[in-house]
Write the structure tokens for this entry.
Amino acid sequence: MPSDTTPNIANPIMPSALINWYNNNSWPTLTSLNGNLDPTIVEETCSINFECRHDYIIRINPVSSAATATASNLFQQSRLILGKILI
């Protein structure tokens, strides 16, 4: 479509690159744009859960981010349990 200005991204931003960018450079700017992106709020919402932090920075939604953290934790627990059963 001629009016489509979406860039053709061959190499999308990796989730870890987004988190590193937020942690190292951009949180002051982002916080000035939206107070909910303050590191204290991100920490309260997600603790150290990487998936939750990534989801929160993108969506700024504590409910969906908490759900992401819960799903990630359940997946990790399932892997541990299955690993013990299959040994």
In short: The CA atoms of residues 57 and 86 lie 37 Å apart.
